[in-house]
Each structure stands twice: as C-alpha cells, then as structure tokens.
Amino acid sequence: xxxxxxxxxxxxxxxxxxxxxxxxxxxxxxxxxxxxxxxxxxxxxxxxxxxxxxxxxxxxxxxxxxxxxxxxxxxxxxxxxxxxxxxxxxxxxxxxxxxxxxxxxxxxxxxxxxxxxxxxxxxxxxxxxxxxxxxxxxxxxxxxxxxxxxxxxxxxxxxxxxxxxxxxxxxxxxxxxxxxxxxxxxxxxxxxxxxxxxxxxxxxxxxxxxxxxxxxxxxxxxxxxxxxxxxxxxxxxxxxxxxxxxxxxxxxxxxxxxxxxxxxxxxxxxxxxxxxxxxxxxxxxxxxxxxxxxxxxxxxxxxxxxxxxxxxxxxxxxxxxxxxxxxxxxxxxxxxxxxxxxxxxxxxxxxxxxxxxxxxxxxxxxxxxxxxxxxxxxxxxxxxxxxxxxxxxxxxxxxxxxxxxxxxxxxxxxxxxxxxxxxxxxxxxxxxxxxxxxxxxxxxxxxxxxxxxxxxxxxxxxxxxxxxxxxxxxxxxxxxxxxxxxxxxxxxxxxxxxxxxxxxxxxxxxxxxxxxxxxxxxxxxxxxxxxxxxxxxxxxxxxxxxxxxxxxxxxxxxxxxxxxxxxxxxxxxxxxxxxxxxxxxxxxxxxxxxxxxxxxxxxxxxxxxxxxxxxxxxxxxxxxxxxxxxxxxxxxxxxxxxxxxxxxxxxxxxxxx
Length: 657
Hints:
Elements: H1 15-18, H2 21-24, E1 48-50, E2 53-59, H3 67-70, E3 85-89, H4 100-103, E4 108-116, E5 129-134, E6 137-138, E7 140-145, E8 148-154, E9 160-163, H5 165-168, E10 175-183, E11 194-198, E12 210-214, E13 223-224, E14 228-233, E15 237-247, E16 251-261, E17 265-273, E18 279-284, E19 287-293, E20 311-321, E21 324-334, E22 339-341, E23 346-348, E24 351-352, E25 355-359, H6 373-386, E26 390-392, H7 400-409, E27 412-416, H8 430-447, E28 453-460, H9 468-483, E29 489-493, E30 509-512, H10 527-542, E31 546-550, H11 569-586, E32 591-596, H12 627-643
Parallel strand pairs: 25-26, 25-32, 26-27, 27-28, 28-29, 29-30, 30-31, 31-32
Antiparallel strand pairs: 1-14, 2-3, 2-4, 4-10, 5-9, 5-14, 6-13, 7-8, 7-10, 11-12, 15-16, 16-19, 17-18, 17-20, 20-21, 22-23, 23-24
Helix pairs in contact: 8-9, 10-11, 11-12
InterPro entries: Beta-gal/glucu_dom_sf (IPR036156), Galactose-bd-like_sf (IPR008979), GH (IPR017853), Glyco_hydro_2 (IPR006101), Glyco_hydro_2_AS (IPR023232), Glyco_hydro_2_cat (IPR006103), Glyco_hydro_2_CS (IPR023230), Glyco_hydro_2_N (IPR006104)
Function: Plays an important role in the degradation of dermatan and keratan sulfates.
Main location: other
C-alpha cells in the first residue's frame, strides 16, 4: 500500500522526495566521522552497554512527513509530543504491528530510548570518552542526545558512531535520552538505489499517491536493525588497527599498523597469543611486524581438522594527558592466512579452494532484518550440516556478529556492498559514484581484518552493459584495491559476456544465470548447452576464474509433480542436478565455485510472481529443509571429501555439532 504526501516545498517537490531537505535547512553541519571503527569490546580499559529492548516509536504521518522537524520532536521526550508505541530494537518496524500502513511506510520514523549512565563514565580528570554506536539503521539516520544532534549517517548496512562525551558529561544528571530520526526513502543515488513514482491519474489513485520503486528482489525492510551500544575509552585511545598476514610452512609474518588519538603514545606494545593464552610473538611501536614460528593457519571449514583458528592480538597504549598517565587496551582476533588468484584457481594458504556455498539474506518472520541470535546460530548449524564452506553477503554487508562467527567457524565470505539494483543511467553519475566510494571505505574499514573475508564484491547485477559502467566500475574497483591491496575484488554480473563493461576490471568473474527458469522456463533440457556456453564464453574472453554466483528455482514446500514441473520440489531438485553435471566438468578447468540461490526463502515486495516472497530457498523461511537441501548436502560433502586434506572419515554427521 502506498502512502500519500503533500507536494509543497521547493520547486513543487514534496519534502519526502527531497529526503533530507527539511533537516538540512536548519541543522548545523557535522564534524567528519572517526578514522577508525573498531568493534566495541570489553577490555580492562573499556566498557560497553547494549541498549536493546523496547524503544519508543512513532511514524511521522503528517502530509509532508516533516512534522518531527518542524515541531522539533528531539528537544523533549518523544512521548510528550504525541502518541508513541513500543518498538523492539534491533528489528525492522514493518511487520511488528497490525497496522497495514506501517508495512510499506515510506518516510521519517522516530525512535527514542532513555538510558542511565554509570556515574564513573562522567567523572575523572580527564573523564573517559563516551561513544554511542549503531550497528546499522536503514536507511538515513539523524541522532540526538539530550536534544543535541551528534551524528548523521547515510546507508543502511554499516555502523556509525558519535563521541557524546561533551553532551552527557555536561548534563546535571546521568540520564541519556537518545532520539533517532530514520528515513527509508531510496533515490537513484542511494545504495541500493530506488525512485519515487507519483500516480497522476486521479481517476485511479488518490491525490498525491506515490510508491517507492526498487530494482531488487527483496523487501526494503527498515528500522534499527543491529545493536545500539554505549561504550567508553580513555581520553587518549587506540583508534584503529590494521593487520595483514603472510605465511610459509614454518613461519608467518603479521604486519600491523596502529593509530592513536588524543595524545602521542608514551608506549605502544603488542602481544600475539594463541588459543591457549601463550604469547607467540611480541612487538612495540605503531608500525611493525610480528614473526610467528610454526603458525596455526586459519583454514576454511572442511579444509582442516581445526578450521577458523584465531589468535588474539592484544594492543596496549600508554599516554600522558594533562599530567595523568592513561592506558588503553584492545584485543583483536587475528587469523593467519593468505589469498591468491590465478587464471584458473582461487588459493587459500597456497591450496586450491572451491566455493561450495550459498547466498543468504538477513531475513526472517516478524523481525525482518533485525539481528536475532537464535536465528544466527541456527543458520550456522544448517550451513555446517549442509557442508557449505562459504557464502556471499547478498546484497549488502551483514552484521558484525555474523561475521564474527564466520571468522571463528572458518566460513569463507565474499563481502558484498549494498550496490544492488544499479540499473538507471543516472545511478552511474558522479553523485552515485562518490557515495559508492564512501560506502566501500566504510565496508573495508569495518571488515579489513577478518580472515573469513577473502574477496570484496562491489555490486550485484548492475546494468554493466551501459557505457558509463566502464568508468564507474573501473573507479570503484581501483578504489577498493587501493584501500585493501590484499584481497581480490569482483562484482556479480548477469550481463552478456560480450557487452559487460565492468568485467575487465575484476579479479574473479562472478556470473548469475537461471536457465530453464527466467530463460526458457520449464525446459530443463537446455541447461547443459546454455550453461556450458556461458562458462566457455566468459573464460575465453577474460581468462579469469569463474564462480557461478547464483542459480536456482522457486519451490513451494509440499508441492510435488513427477515429471517435474515448475514450482515443485522435484523441479528444484532436477534443476540443481542439471547445473551440477556441468559444474563437475568445468571445475576441473576454471570454475572455482557454486553458490545456490538461496539458502532460505525470503520476503519480497508483493507481485504476481511472488507468493509471500521468493521461494528459491533450499530451506523455508522458518529454516525447514526442502528436498533440494538434501541434494545439495550430498553434493557438498562429496566435494569436501574429494578436496580435503583430512582423513576420508569425514561425513555429513561430523564436524557440525
């Protein structure tokens, strides 16, 4: 259901379409964000406090969606400016209530939470630094603390934070009122892009009727999707750590760079500990390398009997501030591994790695895209039951909590930006490009130290056949490689191999195809010929290894037909087997991976081809297996046994409990 908005404002455009105009007209400019974005952790010098639970919530239903700014709702408790409802955080707001207008609401919504700060956070000379951090909020966020604006952020899938020390430490009490204005409108220049379409036919639509159009096939859930955290650091603190690793059979080098803010460090020391707590290497200074003898390498799941081995890098800093000696301590998990790409192989620690995995979504009943620990743990148990060694974060960066488990369990990740649905020519312009570059900076800054992340993906299924795509993707990929020279970079294409302007710049070809589904629907017999031609054409043109980054078919659980017909579980099984027969031939040459679309059914916009969402999952949205899950499980365990260095006793009943 679309919502109406009045079309006052500048040049006859409604404030909603202008997105941020009501804000920028009277709010002060903001300081640049911090250089580092270390994940908040409890250490001897740092404390953290999560603010999950129930927040006050209100959707701005005024004609222009701008009442909250006009009336300055942030200046007093939200409940004093009108009705509020309880809203869980983290969660999407769309499916929580029985109000149908909220399901597809477009515009500004308001959240608020009051928290008491420990008195020790507000005392001392110098007092500790107090930081407010959001794991993510979709899509555009403006945050106030006690009525003072502290941060503004564009983008729905990456963290942002603000140093709120000057606000809360000047308060007469320890109450901290956090107000968030959140807008989920997508424009041609956001990531992902979208557009607002007004329906002018008054005989068919109400006055000022509009819809939000998108060019991606998942529901545009909105809300505060990941944890909100208050944390402290000393006044002088460790701001950022960058780690890269190299290794041979008997020695590894851990190169590091540490940045400090607030003072020049009197001393900076580093200790690398193994999982038994033994110090295996030590160093000092902001830049250097640690030598580790006989290292335990980080191996993917099913490539080693001890996958996902992590060391702990403890960084200690001492600095003098106002005559007081301060110490900050931060511990970073470190996995020692290398990645290298040849014309036919993807090598991890010098050994060929074959991606047998899945594409996923952060999506579930009721909570939408909200972080949910039971669901996360269930998904990892299913991944290991399946014998999957990898997934792509389709089509946006996933929560840090998910990435932590990938590091710990040895699940390999293709880390994808929210560059999905880049279809319109205006989405390849300079405004979009500059934002895309900024998003890649945020993503690399967040995930650069993760051993599970072996490749960056800058986009999914863009209109890369358009001429502007050449400069666009050349620039984005070069920028990403400059940010992180240690990893290959790709984007996922569904364009014709002869017309793709971005493919020359990637390190690995990732191609999506749905033969016998979107093309020649119902004709399974065309798959061998068309899929073989796809691989041969791409490889002949670019001489780069290829991942089948998507393939699959919808199946309605419990719907059966023999011979197989579309939308039945049998058809989904049959399609997979046809694809697999070609994969088995080409993985002996230059195909280095296969990622099924999708791990689980997920919600989409309503449409005549979608019955309560996309049904291409091998599991239902409730994580129950369809018949295709068992086909894939048998295949993945067979591949793992063929390529693993482990004894051949590996079965699908081991290593996943």
